Amino acid sequence: MGGLFSTPQGTKCKDCDVVLDVPVNKDNLCTNCLQNRSLPICTKCKVNNSNPGFNWCQSCYASYDKCTKCYKNKPNKGFKWCETCFQAKLSNAVSRPEKCFCGKDKFFNSDQNRWLDFCGNACAERHYAAFGVLKLDENHPDFVSACTQFKNNWNLNKGACPPVTAIFRVQPRGADVMFDSYKNALTENANTEYYFHGCKIKCDLLKSNSLCNLPECTICQVSKQSFDIKKVGTNVKFTRFGKGLYFAPESSKCHDYTLGDASYGYRAMFYVKCAPGKKQIEYKDDINRVSPDAGYNSIYGKAGVNLNYDELCLYTDKACIPDCIIIYSRDGVNRRCF
């Protein structure tokens, strides 16, 4: 049998007492124990075999009461590393930002390996309740991400992409809960996708760093309350796929729908989180639509037949939420499409 031996009924593994029911080697070891015996000896206790891929055995690792990074200090409660080693990792991973406006350290999200904007939820709620927006530093990862997408999705057939002047994070009260609930309930493609949406801005957001109360300033109204399906058609009369909320993957298309104020000289568009679910692909206008066909969650218009650009149409405002306001300057302040 090539080195294998018949196992008498009831024979147990020498190391773990498991009853052996298949031919084994002459040492009467089960497969797991045979593998463990081939592992190096634990470098700490010098008795047991080490865990696969480690220098120590499971027993020594579980009972060790020192930081497994420096082997000197007591580890933080519930962790294997001490505070000194943990902070050293943070300083190497990302630079520590300025403190939260309350004076405390900002919260470090270890899953995302980044510092958040505030020390916790309480300060975040206080800030957004007072100002409605948070101006992002140019080195902030969310600024870099939104700015990069704005530039990469600008169609150069419309000329060079304008430089981004500023980016503000927005957080409409309660809209994130509705968005997450809607997205998680989708049965297909329950993912977040990012699009652009051109809007009208009538205030000097760059100077005030806070949302205004002007009813005609769509940027500020949507930033406070999120998108509202009931207001579709208020500013733009033509609705290609009926009464829905429209978004585009190209920032240059949304530029045509932005409108600024001559007193301030800049434009603004939203960078939007969407949960389109299962998309129904369409190539032609259908202005009398009120919803996608059964089994679909949204309409995705593809360029090529009588559409010049791709666009997404959502029929519920729960499926979208503004994420950032992108401020830029180009072509004066007047809207190019109506």
Automatic annotation (TrEMBL):
Signal peptide: none annotated. InterPro entries: Poly(ADP-ribose)pol_cat_dom (IPR012317). GO terms for molecular function: NAD+ poly-ADP-ribosyltransferase activity. Residues 163-306 form the PARP catalytic domain. The lineage of its organism: Eukaryota, Metazoa, Porifera, Hexactinellida, Hexasterophora. It comes from Oopsacas minuta. It comes from the Eukaryota. Gene3D superfamilies: 3.90.228.10. This is PARP catalytic domain-containing protein. Pfam families: PARP.
